[in-house]
Amino acid sequence: MLSESPDVPLGRGVARICAQFRNVLCEAYLAYVEQQIRPHTKHFRSCDEEITAQMVIRGRSDRLPGRTSVCYLRRMTNQHRSYDPQDIEKRWQAKWRESKAFAGDGSGEPFYILEMFPYPSGNLHMGHVRNYTIGDVFARFHKMQGRDVLHPMGWDSLGLPAENQAIKEKIAPQIRTPKNIKQMKEQMERLGLAYDWSREIATYRPDYYRWNQWFFVKLLEKDLVYRRQNTVNWCPGCNTVLANEQVLDDATCWRGHKGVTTRSIPEWAFRITSYAEELLADLDKLSAWPERIVSQQRHWIGKSFGARVEFPLQGSDKKVEVFTTRVDTIFGCTYVVLAPEHPLTDLIATDEQRGAVEAFVEKTRAIDAIERTAEGAPKEGVFTGATAKNPYTGEVVPVWIANFVLADYGTGAVMSVPAHDQRDFEFASKFDIPIKPVIHPSDGTDLPSPQCEAFTDDGVLRDSGEFSGLTSADAREKMSAFASTNGFGEATVNWHLRDWGFSRQRYWGTPIPIIYCDDHGAVPVPEEDLPVVLPDFDTIELTGEGGAPLGKLPSFYQTKCPTCGKTARREVDTMDTFVDSAWYFARFLSPELDTAPFDQEAAKRWLPVDVYVGGPEHAVMHLLYFRFWTKAMRDLGLLSIDEPVTRLITQGMVNAAAFSCPSHGYFPVSEMLAKPEGERNCPKCNEPLGVAIEKMSKSKYNGVDPMSLIERYGADTTRLYVLFAAPPEKDLEWNPDSVEGLSRFASRIFRVAQAQGDEVRTAELPKSMAGLKGADAEIRRALHRTLAKVTHEVGVRNHFNTAIAAMMELINTFYERKLHEGSALNPGVRREALLTLAQMLAPFAPHLAEEIWSLGGGEGLVAQSRWPEPDPEALERRTLNLVVQINGKLRAQLEVPVDADEDAIDAIAQADENVAKFLEGKIIRKRVFVPGRLVNYVVG
Question: Residue 601, CB half-sphere, CA atoms under 13 Å: how many?
C-alpha cells in the first residue's frame, strides 16, 4: 500500500498523488503503482515534490486509471531527476564486477592494451588518472569493435620507495604494500577502469619474483649475466651504494651524511651490449613509436664510427687512449681531457696540482652524468700538471680533467680540438688554452681570426701535414689507417650503451639466486630450490645504514653449497626493480601458471602488445630494458617476436599553477588562490610570490587529488576532462573552470536521456532515412555524422578531445530540437539517438553511457555492445538548413535541397506559413541570399 510510513520510503508528492487516486484505484493497481515508482522516489529530493505531484494530478486527473497514468507519472518523475554521478557510477561499477564485463572471451581478433603499471603508493595522482584513462578508452573502444581485448593491471611493488617508507614509519613493507594496493585498486575501480582483475599481478609476491630468479639463472647459462667491478656512489655513513638522485650537490647523502664518494665494488650485470647492434637496428621497425622516444634510444645506444688513438704521457710509460669521431681534426688538438673517474687521474697529477685535482674529482663525482653533460651546463675543469704527446704532430699538450667527459663513454678520455668542437671551444676560451683551426670550409673561404665559435662542419684540411688538402671524409679513412700502420691506433666503432648493472644493496627487492662457495665460487641456486624467498625483516633493524640489509640476517645468508654441500653464503644484494618491469607484460598472459614464467601458446596469440601507454621519462631505461628482455626471451626459446610493443603512446604531463618564493620555496596553491591577487605574498618574507605553470607534484603543492574530484563531480566528468583538455601526447594544463564545463556537459546529456518517455524504450529503430523528414531527418543525419567523426578520431587519429567536441555539438543539436524537454519527434529516431550516443560516450564516460543505454532500452551492457556503423545514406547531405530572415529578424529555419538555386529557395521560403504571414501586405524591396546559410527579405 502507498503511504508515508517508514517502511514505504516515498516522497510527500507521491503520497499526495496516491491519495488523490485512492478512491478510484483498486488495491491491486495501487500495488502496481507502488512497484513502478518506488525506484524513482529517491530522486524527489532534488526537485520540488509538491509541484511535481500537482503537475501529474493536473495533467492526468481526467484520465481513467491504467498503465498510461503510471507511465506518465514515471516520465514526469524522470524529467525532474537530476544527474547524480555518485549513484549512477556505484550502481554500474557493481554490475561490471558481478558480470565480469571486462574479461576476454576468447573470440574475436586479439587486442592487447597495456598501461605502465604503477608503484603502489596508496593514492592515485592526476598523472595516473590521465595515463589509465587514455588506455581505458582504447580498451573499451576496441572491445566494442568486436575484438577480444586483454586489458590487465598489476603493481610494481618492490623497490626503494617502499623500503624508505618502512624505515621512516617502522611499518614493514610486507604489511604496507598490500594495504596500498587495496586502496589504489579501489580508486581505480571508482574511476571506472575496464580491467580484467583476474589477471592481477604484484611483483613483491614470491610467485612473481621467482621467475626473475629463474631468468637470472637461464641468462647466466647463456653468459648474458656476469660479475664485474663497477664504480658507484658510496656513502660512508649509510655504508651502502646510493643512486645519483640520492646524492646532493655538496656530496651529502639524502639522509644528511657528509662525504659521499665513489667506490669500485663487485656487482652483477646483464650483458645488454651484446644486443647493441640489434637494439639500434630494430628501432627502424618501431614506426608506431613517437619519434622523440626512438631518437632518445638511438642517441643512448650511441653507435659512433671513429678511431682510437694513443697519446703517450711525458715522463711515464703510460698512455692516454682517446676515442674520436673526428680524427681529421687531430692536428688542431691543443689539450687532452680525462673524466674525473678515469683510472689515470690519481696517477698523473703532479704534487703541485694534486690537491686541486682531488677536490675537483670529489666535487664532480657527486653530480649526475646527465646534469654534467646537459646543454648549457657550465664547463669546469682542472689542470693535472701532466702532459702528453700528439702522435701525429709530436707536439706536447696539457692533460686536464673536466666535468663534461664521462668515464663510461668511449675510453673516458678525449682529445680536445677547440677550433672544431663547440664544447672544447668554450672550455679553451674559459681557461685560455690555444685554439688552432685545421679544417676550413669546402668553398675555399677562410675562417675568421680570431674565431668567435667553433667550425664544426666537414671541410678541407689545412696545416695537417701530409693530409692537408684532403676532404674530411677522405682524411678520416686515411688517418685511421695511418694510426693502425704505425701502431698507435685504429679505426673502431664505439657504443654509448653500457651493460646494465642491477645489484642493489637494499632489502625490498628480488634476492639474487647465487651462493658463494670457497671451493666452487659463485654457484646459481638450482631451479628446484627457487624461489629464494625474501625473509621478513624486523623494521627496527631496517635502518638504511650498515650495508645490504640481508647481510644482517644469518638465517638468510648462511646456507650450503648446492655443488659440494659445504658451508656457503648467499648473495645479499637484491635486483634492480627494472628487472620486474622488463617482462611483466608477458606474465599477464598467464599469471597463475607455476611451471613457466608464461604460457607460450598465449604469447603467440597476444604478443606483441598492440598499444602501450606511459610516460616519456622512461625512454632510455625501462623501455630499453623492456626491448632487451624481449630479445633475450626470444633467444631462450620462449618468444617468437623481436619487439615487445607495436605502438607506444607517451602521454604529456599534467601541469598546474605553482606559487613560489626564490628564498623560501613553494606554497600551497589552494591557500594562494583564496587570497586576492595583490595579497599573494610569501608568508615568511612578504615578497610577492612568483607563479608559473609546472608539473603537478607534492613538492610544489600544486597537485589535485583525483578522489576529491571524483567525490565532487563524479568519475565520468573527471575522465572527460583529462581526455578533452589536450590530445594524449600533449601536456595538460589544469583549469578548474573547464572541469565545471565538462560537468555541465554530462548533466546536459543526462537531461536529454531523462526527458524521453517509455514509448522510446520500445520504439522500432529506423533502418534508413526513408520516410524521415524535417527535424527527424536532421537529428538522424547529425547523429550519424557525429558517429563517423568519433569513430575516425578515436580509431584512427586517437584525438579524444576532438571526439568529445563532436559529441558536444551533437548535444547542442539535440537541445535545439528540444530533446531535453521530451520532444514529439519520431520515437524510433529518439531511441536511436539515445543508444548511439551511449555507445559513442562509452569509452569516455562509461557509467553515464550505461545509464543512457538502459534508459533507451538497450540490451545488456553498452560496454559489451557492438560499435555502430554510420549509415552512408544519413551521411549524404541531400538537404541543408537555411535561415529565413525578414528585415534581419529570424522568421523560419527551413530544410531545402542542397542543390536548390536561389529562385527555388525563394519559392520554398515564401511558401512557409510563418514567412508568408510576415510578408503579407509588404513590398519586398531587396532579397539578400547567402548560399548555404540564409535568405533575408528587406520589406517595407
Answer: 1
